[in-house]
């Protein structure tokens, strides 16, 4: 089962037509402003979560009547909306994949909080089923091991980002290869590319995120 | 002396009217597509750097005639444009401040490469004079010590981002305070705020970036 999560980032960064013509069998969770946008687009969230402190009464009413369930969180909480949603989505639905939209653009502290929160011990066991998607990027996360990744249509570039120290990183069959690299800190190895339909990489310790992107 | 550096990210993320009505005494360096944009806006770069492999002949000619100096870099080099520019700007001009524009928006691998490259040993001694600026964010970097920061007009939010392990982080007088926090990895402590004109923080080991931002 796949869950789509819409958080509150700027609409300009959404993939094209994100909220148009969605299949009725798609499952959406909305976080705060994201929940409002889902409901305004006629998509009924299976769960809406947020403090809704920047929403109008009309928006809050819309979310209440359209959502299957609404959970009101406390403003000024320690968790970000994304963290709260990830935890609840995992507990409730045990999905195979969580595709997060609206997490990029605008505030960079939010983007970094979204990317980095997956390193929290409680989320490490679910990072392989989380992806962030915007109009220019798809971001997925990997625990140590051997991995095969596939081209995504329209996304020309490929990047490997160490999320902290990473041991023995191997990029076997990408345009720019790497053997037994030990990275001591966060590094974004940008502007790599696929040379065939699939690419393979491995590493021993740490966490890596892979970014498919286009200009 | 202050140097402005324009790299090649999307124009939509520039601060408003970035390239209009600039003072004639401002010093600009352009990286690749950024150099083209400076010249097209009538700003004469003191240095233009790039492989210009995605520029037209007309664009390349414009850069050649308008720039005080052009350095052609090799495509598919190991350094990113930003790294190359930082190194050259420091060697040539020894500026007090390097304000980088065009480093955000679009590809997230580029954004992360730009932020994280400052952790390379060769750049650590200059991180305190580098800032990234876009329409929603100002990002500055700090080495260990005691620091005072000031409000930036229009930027409501304040974030402290550990760029790796950070020891004994103290946020003394921000809206959300922290005492003697040891952070073991990259974490974005987002959505803090100033409570007066200035705020103070300190930490003992590691590197912290501070993000002033607005929605």
UniProtKB/TrEMBL annotation, chains A, B:
Keywords on record: ATP-binding, Kinase, Nucleotide-binding, Transferase
EC class (word): transferase
Keyword check for Ligase: no
Gene3D superfamilies (alphabetical): Thiamin pyrophosphokinase, catalytic domain
Record Pfam families: TPK_B1_binding, TPK_catalytic
GO MF annotation list: ATP binding; kinase activity; thiamine binding; thiamine diphosphokinase activity
InterPro entries given in the database record: Thi_PPkinase, Thiamin_PyroPKinase_B1-bd, TPK, TPK_catalytic, TPK_catalytic_sf
One GO-annotated biological process of the protein: thiamine diphosphate biosynthetic process
PANTHER family recorded: THIAMINE PYROPHOSPHOKINASE
Protein name in UniProt: Thiamine diphosphokinase
């Amino acid at each position: 089962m796949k869950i789509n999560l819409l958080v509150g980032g700027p609409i300009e960064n959404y993939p094209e037509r994100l909220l148009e013509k969605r299949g009725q069998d798609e499952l959406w969770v909305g976080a705060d402003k994201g929940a409002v946008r889902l409901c305004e687009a006629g998509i009924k969230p299976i769960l809406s979560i947020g403090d809704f402190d920047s929403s109008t009464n009309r928006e809050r009413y819309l979310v209440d009547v359209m959502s299957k369930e609404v959970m009101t969180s406390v403003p000024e909480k320690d968790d970000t909306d994304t963290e709260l949603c990830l935890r609840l989505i995992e507990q409730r639905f045990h999905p195979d994949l969580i595709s997060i939209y609206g997490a990029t653009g605008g505030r960079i502290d939010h983007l970094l909080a979204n990317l980095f929160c997956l390193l929290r011990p409680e989320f490490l066991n679910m990072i392989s089923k989380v992806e962030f998607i915007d109009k220019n990027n798809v971001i997925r996360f990997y625990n140590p091991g051997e991995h095969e990744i596939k081209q995504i249509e329209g996304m020309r570039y490929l990047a490997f980002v160490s999320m902290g120290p990473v041991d023995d990183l191997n990029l076997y069959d990408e345009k720019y290869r790497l053997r037994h690299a030990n990275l001591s800190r966060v590094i974004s190895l940008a502007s790599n590319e696929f040379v065939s339909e699939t690419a393979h990489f491995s590493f021993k310790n740490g966490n890596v995120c892979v970014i498919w992107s286009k200009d």
